[in-house]
């Protein structure tokens, strides 16, 4: 049984321009996360990655479908069971400064959930718990960080504090939304190493949301990769097969655009995939059929008329009408190379 199962989820928001219409931000999402598994979610800005993360932790509610946690529909959980879900699924936000109350010390902010959920009986016990997790994330001596305000700490230190906050309630799953994008490059690997350490030590599952393919591959070495485009999952596979042998034209183009490839390319890496246009369609008025057809070099009329399903293909899943033809063409290119 999966720890978390997202079953045919869609979510719509109000259109601020035309209040009579809705904007579908996520459409027919299906995803499972196992215990101790790391799943990386990649895609361009506006593809729905962060919305998916907020949906998982309960910040947003779906319009259609259901989320199962430990086999139970979270919309039907009793109060005590829902509390277990909220504690068991935590989020590490991209903006560490916005995620911490600037008017409270770190101890005041982090001790509150421990006391509220009776994980700690009093402030002294809360301090003991927090010191333990501060040591885990490399914030020592702990007193030097516990009683400071967020603005007195660096971005890397605040990000470690957010991770310690998530760990302090002993979660089963952490959704990490672009956790290293606002941190200096020199600190990114150390933070990712910290998350993989927590994954192995506590068997915590991670949903790692990013636009950076290099960090996605680094953290999800033994996990899976989810590729999103305009609110849809278009490819899902284990991390190595996904990056070394991309199936969907969009993901192939995404990999080809990386200055130094994070993996082999199915065309030998000789050329970038020439797109029909570089303009990304609006999620407010998305194209009919396959959402990528306006940019796809393999476009046919079928792409415009019929939306492809996410179907199993060679050990992974891909949503493309012409995946077999594309595979054959790439094999020919490799033979020439």
TrEMBL record:
It comes from the Bacteria. It is an enzyme of class 3 (hydrolase). Its EC number is 3.6.3.-. Residues 4-255 form the ABC transporter domain. This is Oligopeptide transport system, ATP-binding protein OppF. CDD domains: ABC_NikE_OppD_transporters. GO terms for biological process: peptide transport; transmembrane transport. It comes from Clostridium disporicum. Keywords: ATP-binding, Hydrolase, Nucleotide-binding, Transport. The keyword Hydrolase applies. The keyword Secreted does not apply. SMART domains: AAA.
């Amino acid at each position: 049984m999966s720890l978390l199962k997202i079953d045919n989820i869609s979510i719509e928001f109000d259109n601020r321009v035309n209040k009579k219409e809705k904007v579908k931000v996520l459409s027919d999402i299906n995803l499972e996360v196992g215990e101790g598994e790391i799943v990386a979610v990649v895609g361009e800005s506006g593809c729905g990655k962060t919305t998916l993360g907020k949906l998982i932790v309960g910040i947003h509610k779906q319009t259609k479908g259901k989320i199962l946690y430990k086999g139970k529909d979270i919309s039907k959980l009793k109060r005590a069971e829902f509390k277990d879900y909220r504690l068991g699924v935590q989020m590490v936000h991209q903006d560490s400064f916005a995620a911490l109350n600037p008017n409270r010390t770190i101890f005041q902010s982090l001790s509150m959930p421990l006391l509220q959920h009776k994980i700690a009986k009093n402030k002294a016990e809360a301090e003991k718990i927090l010191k333990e997790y501060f040591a885990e994330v490399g914030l020592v001596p702990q007193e030097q960080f516990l009683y400071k305000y967020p603005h007195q700490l660096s971005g890397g230190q605040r990000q470690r504090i957010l991770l310690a906050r998530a760990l302090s309630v002993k979660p089963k799953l952490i959704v990490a939304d672009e956790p290293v994008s606002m941190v200096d490059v020199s600190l990114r690997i150390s933070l990712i190493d910290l998350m993989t350490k927590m994954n192995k030590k506590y068997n915590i599952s991670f949903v790692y949301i990013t636009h950076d393919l290099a960090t996605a591959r680094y953290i999800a070495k033994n996990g899976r990769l989810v590729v999103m485009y305009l609110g849809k999952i278009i490819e899902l596979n284990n991390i190595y097969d996904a990056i070394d042998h991309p199936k969907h034209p969009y993901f192939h183009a995404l990999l080809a655009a990386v200055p130094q490839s994070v993996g082999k390319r199915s065309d030998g890496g000789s050329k970038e995939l020439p797109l029909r246009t570089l303009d990304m369609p609006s999620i407010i008025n998305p194209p009919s059929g396959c959402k990528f057809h306006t940019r796809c070099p393999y476009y046919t009329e079928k792409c415009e008329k019929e939306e492809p399903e996410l179907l199993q293909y060679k050990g992974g899943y891909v949503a493309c009408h012409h995946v077999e033809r594309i595979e054959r063409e790439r094999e020919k290119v490799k033979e020439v190379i």
